[in-house]
Amino acid sequence: MAKQAVSSLSILLVVLFHCITTSAQPAAAPTKPADSPALPANPPAKPASPPAPQPALPPVQPAAKAPAPAQPALVPVQTGATDVTKILGKAHGYSVFVRLLKSTGVAKQLFGQLNNSNNGFTIFAPTDSAFSNLKAGTINSLSDLQKTQLLQFHILNTVVTLSNFQTLSNPVPTEAGDASAFPMNITTAGNQVNISTGLVNATLGNTLYSDNQLVIYQVTKVLLPLDIFNPKPKKAKAAAAAAALAPVVAPTSSKPKPTKEDAPVSPSAATKVDAAAAVSLTRHGMLESIGVAVVAFFVIKRT
């Protein structure tokens, strides 16, 4: 009896659990009719809208190269009259050279030739530090002519580009005058240009200005010409030195040979000359008297 009760209770619990579980699940949806048309899996796709315009990206810049050695920028080409002093003034660091160009009148000469002719020039411009490295009083001790020649020694009367220096013939003529008195030798070694004056050895620096009529280069030394700072002895001094070195020769006295005209006349000879002259005059007077008497005789006879 007890077993039956336990079995019945177990069955009851199973049925109760089944009922609870079944009631908790949702009711199944009604089955759609088989003949209903199948809906498309996806709605028709709308036409793709054009992409919005994007701002153009700047071109990619190539990687920057290693910076080259600093070079002073070239002074822009002059649109008006070419003025060397203005060009150097914009370059900065050449105030002494500019002042000398103006005070000597060389700047005015350059201005006239650059703007009124087809003449070309190459100028070697010393920096202010180059002048400060000279001995005190070097420039002030020069005469006006020597200052002018010093500046003209820094000017070539032709345009010489960097690639043409190797074509020059030494000594190179300058505006200062004769190349033998103002020698300048220019040599090249690769991209380096060397200038020698016999007193100064300098290296050509940066290009400060360049066009088809004018080129200006920087030099870090003042180019000192030999004729001004180490002049050759004058001819008179050389002749005096040669005379001093010559052996002294004792002068020899030579008497000129007497001529007949210079021979002294003795007193006896002078007396003979006077006597002969007197006889000659006496004879001449007698002949005149005889001639007059004969003429008078014939005149009287005819009458």
Automatic annotation (TrEMBL):
Residues 81-223 form the FAS1 domain. One of its GO terms (biological process) is plant-type secondary cell wall biogenesis. SUPFAM superfamilies: FAS1 domain (SSF82153). It is found in: Cell membrane. SMART domains: FAS1. This is FAS1 domain-containing protein. It holds the Pfam family Fasciclin. The lineage of its organism: Eukaryota, Viridiplantae, Streptophyta, Embryophyta, Tracheophyta. Residues 27-71 are annotated as: Disordered.
